[in-house]
Specification:
Number of helices: 19
Shape: elongated
Helix content: 55-70%
Number of domains: 3
Order of helices and strands: HHHHHHEEHEHEHHEHHEHHHHHHH
Length: about 450
């Protein structure tokens, strides 16, 4: 087939170069957006009197037919079609003849591809936000059920202080809430229509960019045509937000891997999200968590790939920008799959409450509370810290926990310690005494869950 740009050339493109430069093998997924944008553009051309109404209507009808055909049969992936824009215009020409060429009036593939990509990414971000909400809700449901489950909190992966499991799970809710905010910010900044920027400098024809923007659900139009066709900030911003989201997912998955090990036995993952070993009959492997942890590198790599493509490009459009699509598509697919898989993993997880409580009693997680107890008795914190440190050393030497010490043993370290110390360093008391805003007290955790459900319109009943 003849190229739409072939008038200036006396020789046909080399077949290898045709394959090397094609993008239809991956940008074919933009066909819905390309047709949607073309219909809006055609309607604007009709409105402005740039093309006759009857011809414009024939073009719109044919575009709708092409969309239906592709929905049912897919795109003919042939390097000679070059890209999805050329493919659709060629199919349009087969249907309506030479008037198909009028559709590209006051438009370039430069602004067309930016439009298609924005429409695609806008749709995909909304899908990802919905999946992220499902994961957040699963975490809140589990937090609601596990408010009274007490576990060791960790720093440096060492036992630190006892916390509510509900509190621990809400930490991930808050983490993902920031991811949600980043995606919403990205969506807001990218929602400006590029169409009408043409190749790089706008057009001499009397177009109405604002009509197209409104027709396609944009908040407005981009301000500088050269910037519009040469920048991919919106892709970079999305890939950055996606990378951070995947890192946060990986942290949750890492804990599920650790917690499901026999050494921890904090959680039992459902059979639906695990696999076994081909040689060891006893194995139940946390594959979803491990795969998600591994896929983070792909998304970070997608971000780095586009950063490197853009870093040295002069204004305005350069063919290098074709290389932004595959990393974008890969990141969207990867994050979408990860969110669905991790939500299923959390939904089916069963927590070992007894084991968590047992471990919360180990590792001197009551040491800080004992020091606070001494502070309440009038002892300066640094001195209290030193006293409890010596008590811990004594316990290590004698194979005891702090709560195992008799009152006379405790008084050897500080005369101000009384019988009430044992109640003060009980697990429930230690958790509930942390009532500062954002703390692990069960009262605060329940209140925070209520606030979240009210804000998001969720019901946990």
């Amino acid at each position: 087939m003849g190229k739409l740009w072939g008038g200036r050339f006396s020789k046909s493109i080399d077949s290898f170069i045709e394959e090397y430069t094609e993008s239809i093998s991956f940008d074919s997924r933009l066909y819905r957006e390309d047709i949607e944008g073309s219909i809006a553009h055609c309607e604007m051309l009709i409105k402005q009197g740039i093309i006759p109404k009857d011809e414009g209507r024939r073009i719109v009808q044919a575009l709708e037919e092409i969309r239906k055909e592709i929905d049912e049969k897919g795109v003919d992936i042939d390097p000679s079609h070059e890209d999805i824009h050329t493919y659709i215009e060629s199919r349009l020409r087969e249907k309506v003849g030479d008037i198909a060429g009028k559709l590209h009036t006051a438009r370039s593939r430069n602004d067309q591809v930016v439009l298609d990509t924005k429409l695609y990414l806008r749709r995909k971000i909304k899908e990802l936000l919905a999946l992220l909400e499902e994961l957040q809700k699963e975490l809140v449901v589990k937090a609601y059920r596990e408010v009274d489950t007490i576990m060791p909190g960790f720093t440096h992966l060492q036992h630190a202080q006892p916390v509510s499991l509900g509190f621990h799970l809400l930490a991930y809710y808050e983490m993902f809430e920031r991811d949600r905010g980043r995606l919403l910010d990205c969506l807001k900044r990218m929602n400006l229509s590029p169409l009408g920027s043409c190749a790089l400098a706008g057009t001499t024809l009397p177009i109405d960019r604002f009509f197209v923007a409104e027709r396609l659900g944009f908040d407005g139009v981009t301000e500088n045509a050269m910037d519009t066709v040469s920048s991919r900030d919106f892709i970079l911003e999305f890939l950055s937000a996606a990378s951070i989201l995947m890192v946060n997912l990986s942290r949750l998955c890492e804990e599920m891997v650790i917690w499901s090990s026999p050494e921890f036995s904090f959680v039992e993952l459902s059979d639906e999200v695990c696999t076994g070993s081909s040689i060891m009959p006893q194995k139940k492997n946390p594959d979803v968590a491990e795969l998600t942890r591994g896929k983070v590198g792909r998304v970070i790599g997608d971000l780095i790939s586009v950063l490197v493509v853009l870093k040295g490009l002069p204004l305005s459009y350069n063919r290098d920008l074709q290389e932004d699509k595959e990393p974008l598509f890969d990141a969207v697919d990867t994050v979408k799959g990860a969110l669905k898989a991790v939500a299923l993993m959390i939904k089916g997880a069963t927590f070992n409450r007894k084991r968590m409580r047992e471990m919360a009693l180990e590792g001197f997680t009551d040491a800080t509370d004992l020091a606070d107890y001494l502070v309440e008795k009038g002892i300066p914190f640094r001195e209290a810290h030193s006293i409890v440190g010596r008590m811990v050393l004594y316990c290590v030497d004698h194979g005891k926990c702090l709560s195992d010490l008799s009152l006379p043993e405790m008084k050897r370290f500080c005369e101000k310690i009384e019988e009430d110390v044992y109640e003060r360093i009980s697990l429930e008391r230690m958790v509930d005494s942390r009532k500062s805003y954002g703390g692990t007290s069960r009262e605060f955790v329940r209140r925070r869950i209520e606030e979240i459900c009210a804000q998001r319109g969720w019901s946990l009943s």
